[in-house]
Amino acid sequence: MRVNTRLAALGALLLPAASAQSSGGTGSSTATSIKAPDENGFYWISSEGIKAAFIPYGASITKLLIKDQYGIERDIIVGWDNATAYENPDVHPHLGSVPGRYANRIKNSTFEIDGETYHVEPNENETPEAPQGANTLHGGPNGWDYRNFTVVSKTEDSITFSIVDPDGEQGFPGEVISYVTYTVHDCTWDIKMVAIATTKKTPIMLSSHAYWNLDGFGNNETNTVLDHTLYMPYSGQRVGVDNILIPTGDILANERGSVNDFWSAPKQIGADLDKPEAQGNCGFNCTGYDNCWLVNRAQNGPYDWRTSGPVATVHSPWSGIQLDIYTDQDAFQVYSCNGQDGSWPIKSENQGQSDNPELRPVVEKYGCVVLEVQDWIDAINHPEWQRESRQIFGPGGDPYVLQASYVFSINSTGTGTSS
Question: Which positions make up the signal peptide (predicted)?
Answer without folding.
Answer: 1-20
